## 1
Amino acid sequence: MDEKRYLTFALTKGRLAGKTLSLLEQIGISCEEMREPGSRRLVFVNEAQRLKFFLAKGPDVPTYVEYGAADIGVTGKDELLEEGRRVYEVLDLGFGKCRMCVCGPARAKELLLHHEMIRVATKYPVIAKDYFYNKKHQTVDIIKLNGSVELGPIVGLSDVIVDIVETGSTLRENGLEVLEEICPLSARMIVNRVSMQMETERIKRLILELRRLLAEEA
Amino acid sequence: MGKSLLHTPEGVRDIYGEEYARKLFIEHKLHETIRLYGYRDIQTPTFEFFDVYSREIGTTPSSQLYKFFDKEGNTLSLRPDFTPSCARCAAKYFMDETGPIRLTYSGNTFLNTSSLQGKRGEVTQMGAELMMEPSVEADAEMICLVADALKNCGLTDFQITVGEVEYFKGICAQAGLDGEVELRLRDFISAKNYFGAQELLEQQKVRKDQAKVLLRLADMVLGASDLTEAARLAQNDRSLWAVERLEELYRVLQQYGTDKYVSFDLGLLSKYNYYTGVIFKGYTYGVGDAIVTGGRYDSLLSCFGKKGPAIGFMVVVDDLLEALTRQGLAPSLREDGALALYEEGAFPGALRYAQEQRAKGVCVELSPVKDRAEAVRFAAGRKGKQAFFFPAKEAPQRL
């Protein structure tokens, strides 16, 4: 091909994006435009290296990558599990570490020991359903909430919640605790299936360099 | 009523005008190529008994099939793909045939996929099946046919990735994994999910050296594209045989001159469980997933009572068209033929002209107009056609 194709990255808005950029900078991939404060642009270009970057909401990153709108994406494992998109999951970037947990007041522990029906509030209905149906074989009523899930058991909407726990301080402040751990989470790099076949060399090199870097850090 | 009737259900849509013309054109191009290889057309029903697509056959998960009942209470299903139907036909109509059977099909397939994920519920597939022919030359014929068909449609930049299911199955058997675990591992490997695969293998306490080979299949970077390396790692006959088969295949592909489009990946596996040997996928820019899938399914025919090997492929025509369009390679189809536009009273003259031209094989669109101005507007909307205006009182004019 005469002109090298752009390799497009979809990054998760917020802390993950900053950490991803720092990591990429260490292997010589940078995007000055993105560091400009107060910029309202949506797509950032590194012309010299033929790279494009854009920011998206976490759950949308796998969608962009599945359809090939982005070749590469970085998002949390939670979003990958929840969305179930058909992408290659190639790297555990090691940051953004947290856990997906069943949480609730201490007295709710009892409810998880039997197979009786309970109410679960969560932002992650797919993960919650998979855990209770396929791993615990417990019938549950799942209530999808869009934020401040901790409220569920406090105001009596649900018995327990399924949510991400990082330090657990929000839980403790509200008299809740981790009852069961579902799985560990961290930031993952995902690649579009076609891009991996068509741009194999460029993407492989990138992954190899990141892998080397991560191994050094570990 | 009214406006609410204009919408189609989610996942299906109308294809019309220029887009449909282009779609028909590439369907024609694909069919032309497949026909050149001696494949004969077959039409199978749009729906069949559910059992034709059941779990035992190893096709689409039941939850993604459109199912309904006939009057006797049998469960029916809209076809999710053609291969089981073709296998059924081969078993039914060619029961005593021992020589090769070459079939080609084209039609719409249906999937009841999850909502709001932007997935289509109805796509056109065209494909070919070569049955009762176990040779490596048959494998090569399929792959070269795919390459030729894609080239004939105008695609230049594409990649056919070839794998061998037996390589994976050989190692699984050696490691003593049961069917359920093998299925889960296959999902991880086909998603190149290294960590998922690693976790599963640790849970199953698979021997270190065997786990290493399996993990390598899921590893995009180290990969499993080097056949010599793959042969060195495999320590069982089944896997070794698979690698040998691919090496042989590569030699035949070289004779065809198609080798430059082909790369190997022993980690390539399919969600269709009926594949038994060589499998392949065709990729190009502009769409998020493979536009061609295919492979060998030597045990599928026996599900319908006929023993025999088979290999096939299918192209998702809609995806191919989308890829061509996004790459700026879509065929530009010029409308040809003529327009005969007549004022009130000029119909006989216009009709005579239209019939003469149609007899010569020229397409003529015949329509009434109010006056010359309307005829000019009409003609402007049919670029590329010769427009004739038949006024009521004067001689016909070319616009």
## 2
Amino acid sequence: MATVKLENIYKSFGETEVLFDINLEINDKEFVVFVGPSGCGKTTLLRIISGLEEVTSGSVVIDDKDVSNAPPVERGISMVFQSYALYPHLSVFENIAFPLRVAKVSEKELEEKVFKAADILQLRDRLDFKPGQLSGGQRQRVAIGRSIVRDPKVFLFDEPLSNLDAALRGDMRVELAKLHQNLKTTMIYVTHDQIEAMTMADKIVVLHDGVIEQVGSPMDLYHNPKTKFVAGFIGHPNMNFLKTSDTDIKQKKLSANIGDFTLDLAVDVSDIKAGDEVDIGIRPEDLVVSSNKGGAPMTVDVVEHIGATVILYGTVLGNSDFCAVLPSDSVVKPGDTVNLTLDPFKCHAFDSSGQALLKS
Amino acid sequence: MMDKYSLLQKIGIYTSIALFITFMLLPFVEMFIASLRPLTHLFSRPEVPVGETMSFVDFMSRFWSDKMSFQAYRDMWVTVPQLPRYIFNSVFLATSVTFISLCFVIPAAYAYARFSFKGKSVSLTLFLAVNMFTGAVLLIPLYKLLRMYGLLNTYWAMIIPGVAFLIPQGIWLLKTFLEKIPYELEEAAFVDGASRLYTLRRVILPLAVPGLIVVGIAIFIGAYAQQFLFAITFNQNRDYMPLPAGIFEFIGYQTVLWNEMMAASLVGVLPVLFIFLFMQKHLIAGLTSGAVKE
């Protein structure tokens, strides 16, 4: 049982302010992912929860207890570092046992707990090794072992997979998800990789320039991004944005002109007026190639075959970085022109300040 | 690995190294040859009549002759019966200075490597400045101090100034070693509830062993080299004299027993040499491999 509550957290390093008014509630047993580009403050926020960094103002509440000024060990947290931070001179056994030795746990209990953790992480036959003799994935598991051995209330992960190669990262993602199911504890995970966020999180917190942009379930963020930043950050390949040349409002519907092409969108138009500049967001996977005329023509520059899908990069209505994802059986060559259409209901629209216009 | 140097470059590199090493080692060779010669032959050289060239045998006899022997290595113990004591004193003084210095250097270097505090860079610079003074400049004030505390003519008279002069160098050296130990290791230990001292003892110091050995050796060399000055100024007790001062006894009223003096000097260096050979094994690189992903 562990909830984490962040209340009005501000953090600055000298003159540089890195976090502004962070408010967040994390429920018991929840897997929460902080995601955002580098420098957005996500690691700082995690370090504030861990107690490695002090808040400038605001409070960290774990299990209804204000721990803003408590040292890490009194917060009931444990942390896995990006660089693993294993003790190179100690064996795997001693690495995992380190927190228990600090806590002066009896030898018998210590052995029991280390073996249990080693079994969960399949490290039983590696206990006598030194970290230098292990592969990247095994080192990562030792680091996780060291964090679970103390039965913490909250696990903190600071980009734990960013040093692994792509295949191993996929495996470890699954292992971490399983670990979460087994341990049933609250986990907070920091990453810059939105795929990790999408695949593992119960709840994603998108951070941008020190503020929380949006909090929600992965699919909620994918389908209903509240800002242009979230829309562009979540989803792969990234969402396409088209600037409108002119807008009009007809029967409470937004009529957006892009060049000589018009899209009618069913969005809330109460805050905008005709002529306002609007960004239209289109997910590459929502596009369909149509054989009859009427769609927007795309001049294809690059074609990527990745097996399940075909990704096209090219120019649409004067926008050169346009991307479309098609089924794998599509036959398209660079230099071709294809006609793209889409369901206008799947389009996203953002006002000039980057706020999404809600779908009506 | 690719061969980075051309043949010509290699020849150049090895010639330079050979020259350098020769330059460094020549005094030792000269010492060794001098120690082998009988005293009467020490200053003799084959005379070459004008107009004649020296024969090869004559030339070589400058370096080697039948009359050479290890006699001086036997005689020196008789000439200066205290010699073993002097050698022991030298090693004892240098070892004490090294250990006492390390006791001060380790916590200080750790603090300089990890904490930020007021006057950090100023005090570090001051430490360097202390190194610029040679002990000789401070001999008189030091003498007064030591007399005040009644430490003249004791081992402490040579140990305390030795420690004081070597701490700055030790701090600077060890600080750079400690800075290379990833900070995350300490954070990880901190998250697990370990105190600073526990972390220092169980995490930092074991990882700093190569650095500690380098610093230890540097201090030891420094202590060995500087003890002469302190010994002849602050100590009159022959029982406490280190070797460099004890060697003076080979200078008699009538003659200077150069060959025995050279022999004693070489023998005096031996313990240090052994310590180095033994320590070198521990100077292995890569002790921190696997700590963090670089």
## 3
Amino acid sequence: MAEVKEVVIDVNNVSKDFLLPQEKVNSLKGVFISLFKPKSKIVNQHALKDISFQVKKGEFFGIVGRNGSGKSTMLKILANIYQPTTGSVDIKGKLVPFIELGVGFNSELTGRENVYLNGAMLGFSRAEVEKMYDDIVEFAELRPFMDQKLKNYSSGMQVRLAFSMATRANADILLIDEVLAVGDADFQRKCFNYFKKLKRQGKTVVFVSHDMNAVREYCDRAIMIEKSEIIASGNAGKIATKYTRMFIEDSKMGQTEDTSSSNRWGTGDVKYSKPKITVTDKLIEIIVSAKANVDVKDANFGFSITDATGQKLLGTNSIIKKVKIPRIETNQRIKISWSFPNILRDGDYFVDLAAVNTSNTVWDWWEEAASFRILKEENTTYTIHPDININLEEVN
Amino acid sequence: MQKLRERYRYSIILLRELVRTDFKIRYQDSFLGYVWSLLRPLLLFLILYAVFTKFLKVGNAVPHYAVYLLLGIVFWNFFVELTVGSVSAIVGKGDLIRKINFPKYNIVVANSFAALINLGLNFIVVAIFMIFSHVGVNIYDLLLIPLIIELYIFSLAIAFLLSSLFVKFRDVGYVWDVFIQGAFYGTPILYPLSRIPQHYQLIRQIVMSNPMAQVIQDARYVMVTHQTTTINQVFNGNDIAWAIPIGFTFVLITVAGWYFKRRSNHFAEEV
């Protein structure tokens, strides 16, 4: 029998408007003047429109959406920091009152004093903090630094202390806004372990993130907010895929054949034409022709592929491939084609081209000469996505 | 009682830490540290004492004028510290307000506690002066307690108003700065009330209806000399006159509390 779980967060038709005067009146003189002026323009910014969702006890619930979509506003409404303009939010159980790490940290105080201060923010008395003090310091690995002022901590140390405090929060419902964006790999692993622990303990978590891998891994369900409205909700994996897709499609619209904005320089002795890219499930092929404007020799032609985050993924050139290029006469054209297996995952990619001679005179250096997109049937959270065969057989 | 404690548990914990932090930060990096809390008023009083008793001779007719003057200044300083400090209290904690939900009045109350602590320290200085001036101490001095409570409520009410108004109207800070300078001279602190001639009855009544004036004069009456003019005297000996400043204080704290509570839900969006 399916267990009917209790709804602990019930959001009903919540809208939030921010009334932003075109010119903000924040002086008495301003008020005085605006009394006599015909109505000054007030821009009603809809941060959220008619949002409804429910979160059940023990669920990990994701809220995804791009910057400015209203997801953080939603979290602040859940945390009771903002009041909804219309609609209601019902919360059952003790809600952690903060949405960020290290709230109330004061850089002029020592680490120890900050533990007590932050503890008070979380609702712990001095005696209670006293009892867990050692554990907090141990977890943050900051034992020798506790009597130093916080301003002398590195940002990583501050985050560790803050996170160590946050894990102490004694609540049924936690709101987490993008904590994983900070900290080194070691710290992130700690975060993950903490999340797993929360899951085991059956805590309810609302999680706002840009990191779709984290959403896929931890969230049971998710909603996607776009332009103040919920545009999708359901299984976290599906929502995460949808979100990634939306980004890819979006960047297409912004980008046309026009590459004038791309970065190109060099002597112009040899110049590339616009490359042609063919993408199939198996293979990616780049074809380009180079035209010599003067007689040149010892040419070296190369390319590289960059992903949307600027990471250089692969590339090569004719020297690495040990291809000897013959002398090129003035006005002669050479057609070059590169091809490699399609191991890229979903996303947008850019092709950089270079034509240099072997003594490194740059003839044509063309960044983002072309772009292409990968959309595959399958989905992966890993950096590359080769076609992987899976084979199962029964062994007796 | 237990229930009340439970309900305000979070506020109590928070208040304690906010006050503690405030106090720590205030005297950080100063050589004498907390000693300044005591030294500063003491030195300021010595200056005033010298100016007003040796050069200006304003209060020669008043017995124990030094203590009389100091008492007024101590109360006034408390009022100034509490209200001026509160103006930017909410805005100054904007970072906190935007990230965590907690009862906002704690910020203003924590701020007022800092002023209360200083008031206590100032009274040590007053006590020193009383001993040197041979002002007797008696049981009636305990009447100071209800007077301080009244003063505290009055100041707190203004603090609630100023801090919440400042979120929307930043000129409140300037207005209050100027206003408080004027109010200093409109309150009988440096001069005895007898300096306002008897036939300006209405002015004397208005001046004394100000809770600040009433509290200071009453404190002087019980602590220093019965020659001090109290509010009933300017209202033809009618004791009901006390209802004016006290009533005003209660109306003010009610209005200020209501306004603050109503506004506090929106602080996070506006600071």
